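Q: Sequence in, structure out?
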Amino acid sequence: MAKIRKFVSYRRIERPYTRTSKYKEKAYIKISPNIKIVGFELGNPKKSFRYTLNLISKDDLQIRDNALESAKQSSNKILETNLGLSGYHMKLKPYPYHVMRENPLASGAGADRFSTGMQKAFGKPIGNAAQIKKGDTIFQISVDKNNIELAKQALTRASKKLPGSCTIQMVENK
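A: Exactly. Output:
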């Protein structure tokens, strides 16, 4: 498997130039990579909880799908071991629609013979990312009053896995 490129080059939001079409000549991206997120909702979605905690982004950025999945798994581990599946409801809000591309440049001996340079520089798809604006909710956890601190701890752990900085907002449901 190829090494994942550092995300510094993809963190800034760019125009999502990712046209896919059923007509071959109109499609720019031929194949969209598989999304690595397994599920977007965890816990008990049917029960109504008293409090909702949101993880909110402080900047405009892109977040790769494997970073979202890693943050989801690490925060879910805390909640599931302490509360069980029926004691919370966690939801991952953004969906990674944006297809990231890379124009691989050949290096080494004889690279000038088979490298296209900037002639066909659209790039090949290498992964997916979610585009997040400032103030958007990334994770949402619903719990009862006695489990608020545990949910804050889970959201703090999730924010450490994500690029950029986040804040935790608490909302009381009526």
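The longest strand covers residues 124-132.
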